[in-house]
Amino acid sequence: MERPAFGEWPLLLAHVHGLIEPPAFEAAEVAEAAEPGDADAPATCWRPPRPAQPGLINELFRPGVRVTDGYHPEMTVVEPRRVGTLRVPSGLLAVSGPDIDRGDGPRITVPVPPGQYVLDEARVRFSYPCEWRNAEVTTTEPTAVRLLVSQRPAATWEMTLGPDDDPRLFIEQQIAGFDTDGATGCFADAEAWDPLIALFERGLIRGESDLVEYEDIDDGSMFVQRTWDEASGGELMSFATTGDGTYPVWVGRSEAGEVIGVVVLVEGMPELLPDRDATPTDAAV
After folding, report:
1. Which of 42, 82, 88, 164 reaches 20 to 30 Å from 149, CA-CA?
2. Contacts for 33-36: CB closer than 8 Å, 24+ residues apart
3. Phi first, then psi: what are they for 47, rounded to 5°?
4. Torsion sign across C-alpha atoms 187, 168, 163, 246
């Protein structure tokens, strides 16, 4: 038999099943579309997989905010620690793993106005029972590193993609970012990437003691090495992560789309705890 035309399949079904009259079909009212991740969305409402979401990045740099990492019930965000500055004269920021250089340049690049930018760390303070001291110990640990472009708070955060990343192929909560085999990332001037990485390797791996354009940073921060290219003026600052793997790069933007800051979480995203006197309203940004 001939294939039914569009709209005539109900007639075929009625014929196959021996129905006297073809079934009646009524168009259902279309419900208002639910936001992605809305718990009230019908179970039959399909949506494509979403990449990982930014979470509460703004709050990690807001003193007094209470969070938990799942291991410590309560952690309090303290004042960010300013570590130094980074010169990006080319206007193209690189965020990558300096220990994995395949000769194809930095993994992630972000256009920023040419200039010199502050580098700081987000930190949390918490207490825990220390068995070998047999006492309650209070400590402070970093949660993220940031290149600060503007003092204004970011209105939105987005995960920056590499040249080969296609979010249409991502599975649910997949991340994209830079890879590291040595628990190290870096911010650098992308145009001076090759000479900066060469200096980094000469100073860190070969240990050349007379290398002028390289220094170890020993101030207790997550930032550990710095190199600078005399020809271009570009600089590189490396920082420690909590392990190997892939680390996403989050770019904060203003309402007008301007870059406010670039952040790398050195560990997982903590969960926001409610304020003692009120419920926070900024957790989605």
Report:
1. 164
2. none
3. -140, 150
4. positive
Provide CB contacts within 8 A for 44, sequence distance 6+.
none
Give the model's confidence band at 66: pLDDT under 50 very low, under 70 low, under 90 confident, else very high: very high
Task: Give the residue from 143, 147, 161 showing the smallest Cα distance to 221.
Answer: 143
Specify the 3-state DSSP secondary structure of 199.
Answer: helix
Return the SS3 of 54. Answer: coil
CA 59 to chain CA mean position, Å: 14
Please answer whether residues 185 and 146 qualify as being in contact, where contact means their C-beta atoms are separated by less than 8 angstroms. Answer: no
d(CA 263, CA 250): 5
pLDDT tens per residue, range 214-240: 999 988 899 999 999 999 999 999 999
The DSSP annotation for 167-187 comes to GGG--TT----EEESSSEEEE
Q: What is the pTM of this model?
A: 0.80
Model confidence at 8, in pLDDT bands (50, 70, 90)?
Answer: confident
- Average pLDDT on 126-143 reads 88
In this predicted structure, the answer to whether residue 141 has a pLDDT above a threshold of 90 is yes
Q: Which amino acid is at 164?
A: D
Please report, for residues 30, 45, 162, 285, the alpha-carbon distance to residue 48 in angstroms, rounded to integers and kept in the order given. Answer: 19, 10, 21, 22
Asked whether 235 and 189 are in contact (CB, 8 A), the reply is: yes
Q: What is the largest CA-CA distance in the chain?
A: 95
Confidence of residue 120 (pLDDT cuts 50, 70, 90): very high
- CA–centroid distance for 203 within its chain: 28
